[in-house]
Amino acid sequence: xxxxxxxxxxxxxxxxxxxxxxxxxxxxxxxxxxxxxxxxxxxxxxxxxxxxxxxxxxxxxxxxxxxxxxxxxxxxxxxxxxxxxxxxxxxxxxxxxxxxxxxxxxxxxxxxxxxxxxxxxxxxxxxxxxxxxxxxxxxxxxxxxxxxxxxxxxxxxxxxxxxxxxxxxxxxxxxxxxxxxxxxxxxxxxxxxxxxxxxxxxxxxxxxxxxxxxxxxxxxxxxxxxxxxxxxxxxxxxxxxxxxxxxxxxxxxxxxxxxxxxxxxxxxxxxxxxxxxxxxxxxxxxxxxxxxxxxxxxxxxxxxxxxxxxxxxxxxxxxxxxxxxxxxxxxxxxxxxxxxxxxxxxxxxxxxxxxxxxxxxxxxxxxxxxxxxxxxxxxxxxxxxxxxxxxxxxxxxxxxxxxxxxxxxxxxxxxxxxxxxxxxxxxxxxxxxxxxxxxxxxxxxxxxxxxxxxxxxxxxxxxxxxxxxxxxxxxxxxxxxxxxxxxxxxxxxxxxxxxxxxxxxxxxxxxxxxxx
Amino acid sequence: xxxxxxxxxxxxxxxxxxxxxxxxxxxxxxxxxxxxxxxxxxxxxxxxxxxxxxxxxxxxxxxxxxxxxxxxxxxxxxxxxxxxxxxxxxxxxxxxxxxxxxxxxxxxxxxxxxxxxxxxxxxxxxxxxxxxxxxx
Lengths: 516, 136
Known about the structure:
A: 516 residues; two-stranded antiparallel ribbon; B: 136 residues; mainly alpha; 5 helices; 68% helix
């Protein structure tokens, strides 16, 4: 019989959807067969199991600390209701040894809301089976082991339950937490992952019919937050303690620095980096602002009383600020250990300098050429001594180089550098001591500004640390100035030297790992 | 009593320094009260700081998503960055004072001193701009 081939447009007759017939997806008979197999359970189904899984936790520190304190919440989704058993009423046979109860009277099973609550998140409880509505499912009554916590597992009942066809329990312990956890690893904690052992096909097949019955329920599993996120509480509550301590030490440094005649910045960085939990990057940034604030506050009175010379400060500060800017960039680029060790060595050297520093007379001799060009001269009237001194600088080029070196170190370590400014101005450049002290403060206020900007732009300046330090040193400096006359300065000076030596040793110890 | 030219400029600088520093310190204190007192939302909660201030600045920035450069200007609605902005004012005091005295310096002290101050202003502007500093 000859074949009469014709072209049939199935789409036109609405037998198939319009489009490319070649892409039409047909059911796979083999897959359907396997799906049917998946609907029959041949064993006691373990609907779910607990998997203890280590997670990295802590990201929620940053933005969700309140959640860490809150009780863990279990979000149960796609669940009509959880079922449990009234064991007393319906358990007919007790196997004492296994402590497993079998229930034969299926129809008598009473459902009750299962308030899945345990003492710990590790005691994750799952007992849930939702009603099946498929015809085939009605014929299938299986024993499902209610999965209880490890502590309760011994008494876990084997009960006949209608098998959940679609039972997805998401222990969604703050998805945000888990999502951020990978970014914030401080401690490992135990998390919980509940898996549905039913085959995906099994779950899939029940989804369509049951979805309309499902509602959202939240269940408090009663987990103590400490069990999972024990990181948070104590550490989080100590922030203000450290800030108060920072304010206190800044205040003390402010007092001592005035009495001992050294810059506060040189004490602040080694002490705070050595004995506070702040990273050296942040301590250096705060140290610069710390020294800057003290000198800015004192600047007006120093200038008005001619204890500081703006004309002398401008060129030296320019040299120092360029170097300080470079030093700040270098300091943030160097490894912390290197900077810490170098800081320790520098502080030890500073201690020796402070110990051995004397006082030179004012330079009344001839000024050098550079000093003459820059007109680095002035007249200082000392009311205490009742004399007026006409001064002019010498070795000006050496002074420029010295301030560049000091500025670089100040930028690297976040130091105020007053310890070195005064000797250079007085001993090298022959400025009167009081002018040297006053002008040193003015120079610091200029030099540290450029380095401070580097730390600000690099995100290395925490205002939470900077402001308490600023307030502390300003108040302490006022007190120090008032008690200066009544305090034996040489005693305080020796204490400062001792502190510098200890802090320097501490910095070297931390940098080398010998004194972590 | 005769007042030298240097003293005139120095007095002007002192006046500006006192006024601008007072404003900067007052603003820093007020902003910190708003920040630490919880009156403003924080970009990085204070409670989180003990775990963060131990870290190198690079890691701190990576974990908090804190900005570098002038990015913090966009976050001034947060207490911590408002406080940072006021601390930046402290760092800007010298720049403001130099700008204020530059005309007087040029008039009274001559070009050389004015050039030195102008150079210092440029250095501070470069540092503050973050052109070099913001690059990690």
